[in-house]
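Checklist before submission:
- one chain only
- standard amino acids only
- sequence pasted in full

Submission:
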Amino acid sequence: MLRTLFVDFNAYFASVEQQINPALRGRPVGVVPVLAETSCCIAASYEAKAFGIKTGTSVADARKLCPEITLIVGKHELYVDFHHRAVAAVERIAPVRQVMSIDEMECELTGSWRTREKAERIAMQIKQELQSTVGSCLRCSVGIAPNTMLGKLASDMQKPNGLTVLELADIPSKIIHLKPSAISGIGPRIERRLQTAGIVSMADLYAAPRDMLHTVWGGIGGSEMYDKLRGKWYEPREAVTRTIGHSHVLPPDLRNTEGAWGVLNRLTQKAAMRLRKQGYYATGMRIFVKCKRINAVSHNLLRQATFCESQDTAFFLRVLTRLWAESTVQGLPHPFVPLATGLVLFGLVPQAQHTPTLFEFPSPVNTHQNVYRSSDSGEEAGQANKQHIDNATASSRLYRAIDDINRRYGKNALYYASSHHALDHAPMRIAFTRIPDIETER
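Returned file contents:
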């Protein structure tokens, strides 16, 4: 029985660029995070793919493969806008059950829509609606199948602008030629485990008993894969936010110590605003700097710290200062050229589960501040605790006010001076499994 209709946009970023600029249509286009020879393509049009250019191809190699290629710095806010317009267009034809990523969504087929004829008709109506209301350059491939995983697999089988139907009777014969890695959820780690178990082809995967897959996956994931491969319907899992972070490829003019430091400050302030917007506290921070020595190999630097629950921007900036100082003293190669930076807040605690600390600003640098002595009287301790609560409340109100002003008047209306030299850098970036919030990530 057909139950899912999976919509996958083809060469999405590059297609949006061609849609807004007719001069790019029919031409090879590469979308990059920054115009630098050491950068890489994050998307390529089908005209560029014909030359062997794909996601991850370096700019230098892309120019060699296709001297005529047009390279464009990604406009992520625009891609998010087109995404919402595309979702609305699909919704006018069929309810969207779940948005999988910036360029993928799934509709559930119900009632008479589960017949092949009507499912295919719905798919063609969706394609027509997208072409007429969102843009003629935004082509999509549609997969129709018994469940989401098989629907995505079907959508990948005929690109661009394809329509593939996988009925129960077609499984596994119509997909037996594919590699196991073609299935969403089978990455390099699982693929190595499968190979160790003697499973190297799709035929091997289908022949493997449930308990073997359970062992390969190390748990229930293997049993679920066994069922999904056979068309069993399943509900989407609720996404759990485990980290909040940002990274940025540095443009040539910021590939120095001051530039990397300024961008890290900018990323910290963005992450803190997102943390508060999503209702979390963080208990750890991790930073990385990807760099290289002059005329030498690349070097990745990683530092992290843990602390009491916090969502305070000023505190995070103090932690960043400490981690950066440790980095420059202990680990950063000299002389070095930083290529990219990133920051992650981890150990997230939902606001409803937050336990207030006795310290107004819990710091791994200065934890002795605001500690109450055992010799303090009960009245003194009570007054100190009340002062702490008042200060924490004032701090919370301050950040709510700052966040509201930045949402209303723009990302740089109010900011900490440490990010001043990077205000126009570290813009919004799209992770394909998450749609960014324009208010907090611009």
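Reviewer check: The chain has three domains: 12-77, 101-229, 244-441.
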